[in-house]
Amino acid sequence: MTTHVGSPPERETPSRPGGTSGASRPAPRFPRRTRLVRLGRFEIKAAPYVFIAPFFILFGIFGAFPIGYTVYASLFDWTLLAGNQGFIGLDNYTRLFGDALFWNSLRNTFGIFVMATVPQLVLALIIANLLNRQLRARTMFRMGILAPYTTSLVAVGIVFGFIFAERYGLARYLLDVIGVGEFNWRNERLPSWAAISAMVDWRWTGYNALIYLAAMQAIPRTLYEAAAIDGARPWRQFWTITVPLIKPSILFTVILSTIGGMQLFTEPLVFNYGRIQGGSGRESQTVAMYIYERTFSGTFNVGYGAAISLILFLVIILVALVNFTLVRRSIRTTEE
């Protein structure tokens, strides 16, 4: 090819996609970056489930599985000595509803629960209201009311055993001073209920009082100041400000006390010197004690004990719901 002098050099024409002048170059891709983006999105979506997974795993192992296995065992004639004798359906439940000892234990459980829970929560509310004021050595008092909760139940049982001793007990001495007759604290129904309720109240009143106190301290002081300016007395302030604003804590303690009160075992057992029958005439035997008696002593009937346990579980749920509804309505009426 002839080149003229002074003419500019020829330029190469760039290849176009789809043209014939050169091969097309693909657009750059970023596969590693795409995978990281997808992984990040997956982590964001899966993170909440990962955080709550331990709870459901532990609940499945220690909650759902025992309940399911209890239902399974209650449908069989199963003893620790003879083993599983076969499927019997609802025979354990039919036998249970005709068992006078079960109804006696359920009656004792409800009686002790009512006698222990109502004074316990009322005293806790009063103590918390007193500790919420400007007092000297408030920290010492707060630590002191929690001391019974940290005490061993065996030690508590020994102390209350001396208090309610039949001959030389402190309770008998005080009753003699005021001229009240003697009580058989272990072989009469109502006295045994009262003694066991005193043990429960002594241990749990301070614990509930601290829960109420923590809720009271979260209430703004300006509300009380405004009420005082309007002429409201301390008692009126307590019912119109304090009680409605600590409603969640009250509901929490009611549910907690219901669950604990319906499962009483150690207090009546220790009070009766380890007798699982709860007195000579079963005056203070609770449902939990009766479950232990039928499952791990006597006939060692696991299937029958499982049926009682399941009925107790349903009773606890029912009573807790009833208490929750009643307390919620009463507090709502107080607010109005």
Automatic annotation (TrEMBL):
ABC transmembrane type-1 domain mapped to chain residues: 106-323
GO biological process, one term: transmembrane transport
Region feature (Disordered): 1-29
A Pfam family annotated for this UniProt entry: BPD_transp_1
Keyword Transmembrane: yes
Domain of life of the organism encoding this protein: Bacteria
GO cellular component: plasma membrane
InterPro entries per the UniProt record, alphabetical: ABC_transporter_permease, MetI-like, MetI-like_sf
TM region positions: 46-72, 110-131, 143-165, 245-265, 302-326
Keywords recorded for this protein, A-Z: Cell membrane, Membrane, Transmembrane, Transmembrane helix, Transport
Membrane topology: Multi-pass membrane protein
Subcellular compartments: Cell membrane
Protein family membership: Belongs to the binding-protein-dependent transport system permease family.
Entry protein name: Sugar ABC transporter permease
Lineage start: Bacteria, Bacillati, Actinomycetota, Actinomycetes, Jiangellales
